[in-house]
Specification:
The complex is a heterodimer of chains A (161) and B (229). With 161 residues, chain A is an alpha+beta fold. Chain A is built from 7 helices and 4 strands. The longest helix of chain B is centred in the middle third of the chain and has 201 residues. Classes of the chains: A alpha+beta (161), B mainly alpha (229).
């Protein structure tokens, strides 16, 4: 069953598991208010979501021909959005630095560009790995850190000597 | 006062007994005196006999001594005669021998010289042979000793050399092992220090954009290794 909505521009704003968690909470809040006919849903969106996200949210709804003032369409849009976000795969990634928003975007974009799929990054900061990244994929650690490279260099050097 | 009869009888009997006893004692005395007299007489006779025997013996001794003297004198005479006779015989023999010696001395001298020369020659030859034999024996013994000494020396050198090589190899292995162990420890220490320094310093000095680039390279490597499939 093909999805009725294309959430790409909205999902492009979600880089991490943490972002997704906050966003899902906001969607839950919006969804609970969606049953209240007395509330202005547009206004509620502005109040619940951050400025940038709220704007993208409205653009996404417009692109999907969804009338957010319509309670039924509103709820349908959010429920499906929520389900899509919850289904996004999560990748744990150990980094040696606390990545900025732009860094997260660059990393997240790499997956879309190179693997044609979205992932939510579960970032864990570990200074001792020096640089690079340690990935946890399906429960398996793959070490691509600078520390590991240095250790490998020394190991090869010792083997050679 | 009357003396009883039995006492009187007893008195008389005692007197009789006393009288008998005295008589007997006198008889014994007389016999003893006669025995002594006889003994003195016998001793006197024996003394006379002994004197006579001594006189006779002395006479016999004197006679024997005189006879012995005569014999000695006779023997002396005989001895003197015999000595003279022997001296004369010796003188005669000596004179003959001297004459004989004088007569043959020249021949004897030549024979002696000849024999002596022969003996000297033989002795010299034997001595030379003995010396040569001894010399050969000494040379052979010395040669054998020298060979044995050389052989033993070589054996000792080989043995000592082998022991030295063995000890050297053992010590070299121990040194190599110790060196390897120490180098390993040093490497581990250096690695730990470098890792610590890298952790403390390198991570901080890497710029953010460089960190991003390193993460993207990590993802590229993971993709190449088909980790995401």
């Amino acid at each position: 069953m093909n999805p009725r909505y294309n959430y790409d521009i909205l999902l492009d704003t979600l880089y991490t598991k943490k972002h997704a968690g906050v966003f899902l909470s906001q969607l839950d809040s919006l969804l609970s208010d969606g049953f209240n006919v007395q509330i202005d849903l547009y206004k509620k969106i502005e109040e619940t979501l951050s400025y940038g996200i709220a704007e993208v949210f409205r653009e996404c709804a417009t692109a999907n021909k969804t009338d957010l003032s319509n309670s039924s369409q509103f709820k349908s849009f959010i429920v499906e959005l929520k389900s899509t976000v919850e289904k996004l795969p999560v990748m744990t990634m150990y980094l040696s630095f606390d990545p900025s928003e732009s860094s997260l975007k660059a990393i997240s974009s790499w997956f879309i560009t190179n693997l044609k799929k979205r992932v939510l990054l579960d970032i864990v900061v570990r200074r001792e790995i020096i640089g690079g990244a340690v990935l946890v994929i399906n429960g398996v650690f793959r070490d691509y850190s600078v520390k590991q490279k240095i250790q490998q260099l020394y190991k090869n050097k010792n083997l050679l000597s | 006062m009357l003396i009883p009869a039995y006492i009187l009888v007893a008195f008389i009997a005692s007197l009789i007994l006393l009288t008998v006893t005295l008589v007997y004692l006198y008889h014994l005395y007389s016999e003893e005196r006669d025995f002594q007299k006889q003994q003195e007489r016998v001793n006197h006779d024996a003394h006379i006999i002994l004197e006579l025997a001594q006189k006779k013996a002395n006479g016999m001794i004197e006679e024997a001594t005189l006879a012995a003297k005569h014999l000695i004198i006779d023997a002396e005479y005989v001895r003197n005669d015999l000595a003279k006779h022997i001296e004369q015989s010796i003188e005669t023999v000596g004179t003959s021998a001297v004459e004989l010696f004088k007569k043959d001395s020249k021949d004897i001298d030549e024979q002696y010289k000849h024999v002596f020369a022969q003996l000297k020659k033989e002795y010299t030859q034997q001595t030379q042979e003995a010396l040569t034999s001894l010399q050969k024996l000494a040379v052979a013994e010395l040669d054998t000793f020298s060979k044995n000494l050389k052989k033993e020396t070589l054996n000792s050198q080989v043995f000592i050399g082998a022991r030295i090589n063995e000890e050297f190899e053992t010590k070299q292995k121990e040194i190599e092992s110790y060196k390897s162990q120490r180098m390993k420890q040093v490497d581990q220490t250096i690695n730990a220090l470098i890792a610590k320094v890298a952790e403390e310093v390198l991570g901080k000095v890497i710029p953010i954009d460089e960190h991003e680039q390193l993460v993207l390279e990590a993802l590229e490597n993971a993709k190449k290794e088909e980790v995401f499939i």
